[in-house]
């Protein structure tokens, strides 16, 4: 998933990666999100790459049904090896992951990670950003699994060093690659140390941030809503989002379940759907799942 501020170089990087993957015989598909109603960037992708777009509105605010439907269609109609997602500059990484990581196809898509393209010239002038923009800028850097420090051609050697140090201080996990015009090697994508591996292999001091993880769990047996809610109360606040279909004792159909920063919502479902939930958070391997009949 390509994240990054407006104009940071996401499309340039995406096009460069698409070219490299094709050369390696890997077939990419692209899911693009642009805020305007006209699509400019997608025209550059080429007809041989499967493409879906959400125009007008940011995927993290549009509602996940539309995103889910588009992704499901892409998975059903097209054959591809890698899905590259380009978000709008206004997208928050957690909200975007939430929109694209659905229990309906979590077993078909493995989330590789978040690649944040950083406009290095903006990083050096970050104090000029509004408070809201600055917060988003930092969140996009903090949750990245790979940081691309772009627009290095605009900076002096000293400024380049400043950029790398600043990124290192904001995210201790991600590798940092310095580039111009988004030109970085697709090998970097394979090197992304994601999820459990990242937290197990990187020594981390208490109190530092952890990389964002996603997991998909299935239920081994129906449970009661009380049991589930007791479990939810026991969770640390580093579990940001959960959603899925939960088999409830005594109910013919599963319940739709949504959890967002401590808030829970249940809705009865009226059709048979496969059960399971997706979880987005940090240090997911530490949460206990057995007593709510969940297994990976
Ligand atoms: N000087 C310089 N310009 C760059 C670099 N990377 C991208 N640009 C330019 O910055 C502008 C934005 O690049 P895009 O790749 O479209 O960036 P984006 O993040 O996809 O932009 P949005 O889709 O508008 O958010 C274009 O005019 C690029 O040519 C770079 O490394 N150096």
From TrEMBL:
CC per GO annotation: cytoplasm
Pfam families: cobW, CobW_C
Ranges where the CobW C-terminal domain occurs: 214-288
InterPro entries: CobW-likC_sf, CobW-like_C, CobW/HypB/UreG_nucleotide-bd, P-loop_NTPase, Zinc-reg_GTPase_activator
Record-annotated CobW/HypB/UreG nucleotide-binding domain positions: 2-174
Any GO MF annotation of the entry: nucleotide binding
Alphabetical keyword list: Chaperone, Hydrolase, Nucleotide-binding
Annotated catalysed reactions: GTP + H2O = GDP + phosphate + H(+)
PANTHER family: COBW DOMAIN-CONTAINING PROTEIN, COBW-RELATED
Family: Belongs to the SIMIBI class G3E GTPase family. ZNG1 subfamily.
Protein name: GTP-binding protein
Annotated organism of origin: Paenisporosarcina cavernae
Top-level taxonomy: Bacteria, Bacillati, Bacillota, Bacilli, Bacillales
């Amino acid at each position: 998933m390509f994240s990054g501020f407006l104009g940071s170089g996401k499309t340039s990087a995406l096009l460069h990666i698409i070219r490299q993957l094709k050369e390696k015989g890997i077939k990419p598909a692209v899911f693009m999100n642009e805020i305007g109603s006209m699509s400019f960037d997608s025209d550059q992708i080429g007809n041989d790459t499967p493409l879906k777009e959400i125009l007008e509105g940011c995927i993290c605010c549009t509602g996940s049904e539309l995103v889910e439907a588009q992704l499901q269609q892409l998975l059903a109609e097209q054959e591809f090896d890698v899905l590259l997602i380009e978000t709008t500059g206004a997208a928050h990484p957690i909200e975007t992951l939430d929109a694209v990581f659905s229990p309906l196809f979590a077993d078909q898509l493995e989330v590789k990670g978040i690649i944040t393209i950083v406009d290095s010239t903006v990083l050096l002038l970050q104090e000029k950003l509004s408070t809201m923009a600055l917060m988003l800028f930092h969140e996009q850097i903090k949750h990245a699994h790979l940081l691309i420090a772009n627009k290095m051609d605009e900076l002096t050697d000293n400024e380049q060093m400043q950029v790398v140090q600043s990124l290192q201080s904001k995210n201790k996990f991600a590798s940092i690659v310095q580039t111009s015009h988004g030109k970085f090697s697709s090998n970097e994508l394979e090197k992304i140390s994601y999820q459990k591996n990242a937290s197990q292999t990187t020594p981390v001091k208490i109190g530092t941030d952890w990389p964002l993880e996603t997991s998909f769990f299935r239920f081994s047996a129906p449970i009661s809503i009380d049991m589930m809610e007791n479990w939810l109360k026991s969770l640390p606040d580093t579990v940001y989002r959960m959603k899925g279909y939960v088999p409830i004792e005594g109910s013919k159909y599963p319940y739709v379940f949504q959890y967002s920063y401590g808030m829970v919502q249940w809705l009865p479902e009226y059709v048979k759907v496969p059960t399971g939930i997706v979880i987005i958070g940090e240090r997911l391997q530490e949460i206990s799942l057995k007593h709510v009949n969940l297994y990976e």
